[in-house]
Specification:
Protein name: 5-formyltetrahydrofolate cyclo-ligase
CATH class: Alpha Beta
Mean pLDDT: 92
EC number: 6.3.3.2
Number of helices: 4
Family: Belongs to the 5-formyltetrahydrofolate cyclo-ligase family.
Strand content: 15-25%
CATH topology: Rossmann fold
Structural class: alpha/beta
Organism: Microbacterium lemovicicum
Shape: globular
Low-confidence stretches: none
Number of domains: 1
InterPro entries: FTHF_cligase, FTHF_cligase-like_sf, NagB/RpiA_transferase-like
Largest sheet: 7 strands, mixed
Length: 198
């Protein structure tokens, strides 16, 4: 990573993290309700029967309502579990699944681990992001788990990043290993994006 790009990424992440922390509980609840509506509509549009998602942390746009609702509708939802080697294991979400603190203090499911290749069986990936630009480039939180996952998949299905409305921006700093997404889901809209070719 060039020092300049690394600095740009750290500065942008810090700004976005601070903005998220300033949101009121009411705003977060409204965002979670909007995310559920948008993700439900995305499932209908894509016809996905198996998806990967994640358990949102307090300051992230809420995905938990969506996960619970999808499981209740018979959708197979895989949730990530971080590993120290930089890869993700996966477990199947259940209606009464337990949650524990993961490797980085974030909420993760407790359940039978399926290994990194389990995600190859999903029809749609729903992933976290700090921001996404209008070319489909995603800025993550700096650990590279989802970039590695997407980059390793053959025939990768559509990938949608969940962000707040203000986090779809003109451009994010990018490096060669950064993976684009197919679109974004915000509390008010779902935006398909045309990723910039490398």
């Amino acid at each position: 990573m060039s020092d300049d790009i690394g600095h740009q990424k750290r500065a942008l992440r810090a700004e976005l993290r601070e903005r998220r922390q300033l949101l009121s509980e009411t705003a977060r609840d409204a965002a979670a309700a909007g995310i559920r509506v948008q993700l439900d509509a995305l499932l209908e549009h894509t016809g996905a029967r198996a998806v990967s998602c994640y358990l949102s942390a307090t300051t992230e746009p809420g995905t938990r309502e969506f996960v619970e609702h999808a499981v209740g509708r018979g959708i197979r939802v895989l949730l990530p579990v971080t590993r120290s080697d930089g890869l993700l294991d996966w477990t199947v979400a259940s209606a009464d699944g337990d949650i524990a603190e993961g490797l980085f203090g974030l909420p993760e499911p407790v359940g039978e681990l399926l290994g990194p290749i389990a995600v190859n069986d999903v029809d749609l990936l729903i992933i976290p992001a700090a921001a996404v630009d209008t070319h489909g480039m995603r800025l993550g939180w700096g650990r590279g788990y989802f970039d590695k996952t997407i980059g390793s998949m053959e025939g990768c299905p559509p990938v949608y990043a969940v962000i707040y409305d203000s986090e779809l921006i003109d451009e994010v700093p990018r490096e060669i290993h950064d993976q684009p997404v197919s679109g974004v889901v915000t509390p008010t809209r779902t935006v398909p994006l045309a990723p910039r070719r490398r």
